[in-house]
Design a protein that fits this description.
The chain has about 325 residues and is an all-alpha fold. Helix content is about 70%, strand content about 0%.
Length: about 325
């Protein structure tokens, strides 16, 4: 009897596994067909918009949707998450370069801002890819990687993130008229540089800190992390604010539209996401669980700025 029960259990397990495999194959087939259909539509609409879309907003949206859905199909089919950050950062770079080359004006401001986006995207993308390969997987997707709609939801969010945050450089590179460089440009570039340095220091300090087993249950308070609890997010916000400042120097000048100022949504969207949605709140929740009984963490929270780097003594004046 025991043998019969075991045999039936084995058959049931095999049947269950076969059903799951068949379901996944059907889902993958549907995703492949959808991707193929979207690609065809993209080609047709892109050909139409090449003449109509002089600011590349439609083309950039279509390109982003097509690229992200393609990467989603690859990630879901292979059940991997090593391409997610690469897909996002490289999309920014490709959009910036495409709009610059397509418009073929190459004003100094356009070239510099495009270069800043490329440096940011290549550096951040390379760092994130290295980190996920070092870890073996991305824990953010453990609960959604095998769930089609949940995983697709992340990629839809990434489509919105790329297209909205790229607006300043997309509009700048489509500008028919330019103007001489102004103080606004230099302030924007300086702010980008500060943000870039802070983010690089934050990322590599944390990477080295976490690589040391002795720091497993220790609060990171070294380097820029001594002055901010989330310096990497500060760097991100500072860079996109700087890119907007320089790009917006041509908004509304003779020959350019005043509605381009809608691109201010780029740094605002970045700030909102990192401060209230996916950045600081999730990181703080994770640290609160990890160090809930650690007085060092409690003291660090009470004396250290959550975002803008500043000496603890100065932050204490604002946090009374």
């Amino acid at each position: 009897l025991k043998a019969v029960v075991c045999d039936w259990a084995t058959i049931d397990a095999v049947h269950s596994h076969t059903s799951q495999t068949s379901h996944r194959q059907v889902t993958v087939a549907v995703a492949a067909a959808t991707t193929a259909a979207v690609t065809i539509i993209i080609i047709i609409v892109a050909a139409m918009l090449e003449v109509l879309d002089k600011h590349y907003l439609g083309l950039s949206a279509i390109f982003t949707v097509g690229m992200q859905l393609t990467f989603f199909f690859i990630a879901y089919s292979l059940q991997i998450d090593k391409v997610t950050d690469l897909a996002g950062s490289s999309n920014f770079v490709l959009l910036a370069v495409f709009t610059l080359v397509a418009h073929d004006t190459y004003y100094t401001r356009q070239v510099v801002v495009t270069a800043l986006v490329c440096v940011w995207g290549l550096r951040l993308g390379g760092f994130l890819v290295y980190r996920v390969f070092s870890r073996g997987h991305d824990a953010r997707f453990d609960d959604m990687r095998a769930r089609f709609w949940a995983f697709l939801g992340f990629w839809i969010y990434q489509i919105l993130w790329v297209w909205i945050v790229s607006l300043p450089v997309t509009l700048l590179n489509s500008a028919p008229m330019d103007r001489d460089l102004t103080v606004q440009d230099y302030i924007g570039w300086a702010l980008w540089f500060v943000g870039f340095v802070v983010q690089v220091l934050a990322d590599h300090t944390k990477l080295a800190f976490n690589a040391d087993p002795a720091n497993k249950n220790t609060v990171l308070r070294k380097n820029v992390w001594f002055y901010s609890r989330h310096p990497n997010y500060f760097g991100e916000i500072a860079m996109w604010t700087g890119i907007f400042l320089s790009s917006s120097a041509v908004y509304g000048v003779a020959g350019n539209s005043t509605w381009w100022w809608i691109a201010i949504i780029s740094p605002c969207f970045t700030f909102f996401l990192l401060m209230f949605v996916s950045g600081v709140p999730l990181a703080e929740q994770r640290y609160n669980r990890r160090f809930k009984d650690d007085p060092v963490w409690a003291e660090y929270k009470a004396t250290t700025s959550p975002l803008i780097p500043m000496p603890p003594a100065l932050y204490a004046l604002f946090n009374r």
